[in-house]
Amino acid sequence: MKVISITPRGFCYGVVDAMEMVKRVATDPKTPRPIYILGQLVHNHFMVERLNQYGVTSLENTASRLDLLDRVNEGTVIFTAHGVSPQVKEKARAKGLNCVDTTCPDVDKTHVLIRKLVSAGYEILYIGRKGHPEPEGAIGEAPDHVHLIQDAEDLDRVQLSQTDKVAVTTQTTLSRWDTEELVERIRQRYPSVEVHTEICQATQLRQEAAVRQSVEADVVFIVGDTHSSNSNRLVDVVRNQAGKKAVFLIDGVADIRPEMLDGATVAAVTAGSSTPSDITREVIRFLQSYEPTASSNPSV
Ligand code: SF4
Fold this sequence. Notes:
Blueprint: E1 2-5, H1 13-27, E2 35-37, H2 45-52, E3 56-58, H3 65-68, E4 76-79, H4 86-94, E5 98-101, H5 105-119, E6 123-127, H6 133-139, E7 146-149, H7 152-157, E8 166-170, H8 176-189, E9 194-196, H9 201-213, E10 219-223, H10 229-240, E11 247-250, E12 266-271, H11 277-288
Parallel strand pairs: 1-12, 2-3, 2-4, 4-5, 6-7, 6-8, 8-9, 10-11, 10-12
Helix pairs in contact: 5-6, 9-10
The structure holds iron/sulfur cluster (SF4).
Iron/sulfur cluster binds next to helix 1, helix 5 and helix 9.
């Protein structure tokens, strides 16, 4: 089968830096043990398993970062690239934990922006995904003045204490196209709104490449974890902007079923910024050797 391997794809610099930092900390004998990561360093279970091999425990994303800290009473706590709120940092310090912060500089930039806007008297509409750790950290900078907006219904419900100074900012891993639609609605409601779109360059480049380079494909595979925001947004943009119907988010080669390839002669492959490249390469190799008439199942 002909395979278009979309580039750029996979790990972004924020994830690479965070990984390096964790490896350094985990292999330093002076680091206080045990070592915990508050949540998953990146939303990919292969990465979580690999980090376990360094003796680092990833606490599941089943609760807020603040609540997860209740499970850490000694040693080292690592904050993920998604960033954490000031309340989390304060609580960790009060517990006497050794803190390691791997927050991506692009996320940090949004925190700085929020602090600046709030101290200048702005109410902020933060466009992001509910339940994702990045909005939790950013909104924690000023919970009374930053309002999470995921969709038009949230916008209809929001009550601002004043409407003279309103600003918009965003999660870094959103779809540019979805965000523009929501920003347009916000402009209609608050015509003088100040807009700061904070979608990071790594996310934008991956989305634009996926839309542009998947044009000729009959089927598109996004390699990524179902919990990964940027992987899910890649699915959205390939469906909505490239108009592709056969788009599948897969964890790895074992998720490819023969019926996904029915009638297809060209496949395109990309990956979320939290997906290890060897997992994606395995998918590409499998598809390259796939005979469209064959009914083999890679998982067997
Ligand atoms: S996706 Fe963007 S914001 Fe998130 S870690 Fe990567 S570079 Fe940083």
